[in-house]
Structure prediction request, 309 residues.
Amino acid sequence: MPELPEVTTTVNGLQKVLPELIISNVWTDLSKKNQPIKQFKETIKDERFFKEFKKLVTGSKVIKVKRRAKNILINISGNYTILIHLKMTGHLLFGKYVFDKKNNKWLPDKNERESLFDPYNRFIHVIFAFSNGKHLAFCDSRKFGKVTLLKTSDIEKLHFEKTGPEPLEKSFTLTSFKSRLLLKPNWKIKTVLMDQTIIAGIGNIYSDEMLWLAGIHPESNPKNVPTDKLSKLYTSMKKVLTKGIDFGGDSMSDYRNIHGERGNFQNEHNVYRKKNTKCGKRGCSGVIMRKVINGRSAHFCNVHQKLFH
Prediction:
């Protein structure tokens, strides 16, 4: 699932191309009549919702594109915000697309950049058409992604009331970090880091990397981790997330930026998906292990990452 660096990379790209454009049309093949799945009722996967969604956003101007946690927020005129969550395999692409009637699918225009033709970019299920002839395409091979519409003035209160603070904000201090982790003192620290009500935006990849860098075993309980180690974890969190953004996100799986290009953070992994390889920490004799913790895989060094419990 795209995490904070991937979503930030997407938002930064969209903020350069979308503001001031008018949405001229919206298309999807995801909407269903009498949608049977409850959590899809207030999204474009429900036919009735999509009809209202299309009516409200068509003719609107894009004001700004922002991120909150793992969500992409496209503020449009009329006090509305299009919220997009990429879920497991989603990513957004920007360019000129044409509809292939024969195969009932959208394809990049033949003159578009080569990267949009990457096989990972072929699963187009939502299209926003804009006044300049360009399109925003939602590519999602597993169709888990979410697209909905909310009142901009209500979004923080109604949708993010229980979402944790942003880890890269200056206001998120070491003291704040420690207090957030200690809201779940007896949980496994790997699980706490990924809990979106504790801290926003961190997932499987970056939690593994920051715990490796800090030398903390993922099964440690926050209440038992020494203060100096928590300080190291705080610094490691900032460093790893910033590096993820600098390298354009992680494309070990489906993620691509808005131009259809791969990020490069997968080439910088110290631990994630490096099972049975020698630990890369200088002077460490450990081997990278993999273990399932509360249903999620964790990768860690069996020597320098200490268990505090």
